[in-house]
Amino acid sequence: MNRRHFLQTSALSAAALGLNQVRAAVPGLKIGLDHFAVRATGWKAGQYIDYAASLKLDTCFLSELGVFESFEDGYLQGLKDQADRLGIRMYVGTGGVCPTSNTWKTTYGTPEETLALTIKLAKKLGSPVARCYLGNQKDRSTEGGIQRHIEETLKVIRACRSRAEGEGVKIAIENHAGDMQSHELKALIEAAGRSYVGANIDPGNAVWALEEPMAHLEVLGPYTVCSSVRDSMAWEDDNGAVIQWTAVGEGLVDFSKYARRFAELAPGVPLQVETISGFAKPMTWRKDEFWKPFSGHRDSAAFKAWVEFTKKGRPIPAFKAPDGPGRKDAEIAYQKGELERSTRWLRETA
User: Fold this and answer.
1) pLDDT tens-digit profile of 262-308?
2) Using the 8-state DSSP alphabet, how is residue 197 labeled?
3) Do the domain assignments include residue 9?
4) Which of 103, 111, 126, 350 is the most exposed place for a label (fewest CB within 10 A)?
């Protein structure tokens, strides 16, 4: 075989292998959609499944219960059949389950009832996890600090242990909106029991909690059973730093490195994209009042690594949909663009 024939044959083989060939650079890595990435669509569960399939993704993560039109067995079986037919693995989640958090809502009953319902849906849809979270960064500033809320969340998780174990579903707790740092979530998981509890890792939320994403992954990677990922841009200003989430490959996170390490630490767990882009969050760490939620963290090595991370970026423009009748369409187009660029980057570059 001469060189020209070898190259032609290789090119044809690559084309025939399609996405599987592209993903070979990160063996076993699956790529998916967290439905919240395109929340402006207002779709229901079946439409998100179809969309994930249209992008040739591996998974569809329905991370909130509001996307389901029913919790009846017949409806759920229909969704499962649809996903199976399209080759999509389902992941399921709900919102907060901490009764003392500012984010707690009684929409689906008590925290225990909400989590039990999520476990039921996970079982029916073939999801290996039932995702939930504690709250957000505001909880760190309340009486008793974040530890009080961790203890309340732990009670809820433990109350659902027999149900989770009986259904073969792991409860996946997300580091959400700057609520817990990696060492705190790790401690919660270990206190509950790794046999039925793991992490839903989110590198974007890690940055809000003053953690550099790769360092965050090193702590939580071995505990990770689910994911919701996005990139982050950061830059310094007079008061500290500014964080703006963005599409994968367009921020400061080395996602080629991240994806490879992720696959090593959490084999078989998909990278599910949850782009929440277009707005900036000031992190005014040069002001004393900023430190109330993060008491004792100011001199830590983790914070110093985070500061170095923020020095590497540059300001990027925020997104604002135009006023008028086209506003919603513009929001949808923007969210789809962020998500689709992210999944394409992971397929072609990671």
Assistant:
1) 999 999 999 999 999 999 999 999 999 999 999 889 999 999 999 99
2) E
3) no
4) 126
Residue 59 maps to a domain: yes
Residue 16 belongs to a domain:
no
CA dist 18 to 21, 67, 256, Å? 6, 31, 19
On whether residue 169 sits in a domain, the answer given is yes
Number of domains in the chain: 1
Q: What is the pLDDT of residues 52-107, one digit of tens each?
A: 999 999 999 999 999 999 999 999 999 999 999 999 999 999 999 999 999 999 99
Listing DSSP states for 24-53 in one string gives TTSTT--EEEEGGGGGGG---HHHHHHHHH
Pick from 68, 18, 79: which is nearest to 347 by CA?
18
CATH number of the domain that 69 lies in? 3.20.20.150
Residue 60 backbone dihedrals phi, psi, to 5 degrees: -135, 120
- Would the pTM of this model clear 0.85, i.e. be above it? yes
Check whether 330 has a pLDDT greater than 50.
Answer: yes
Range of the domain at 138: 25-231+251-277+322-348
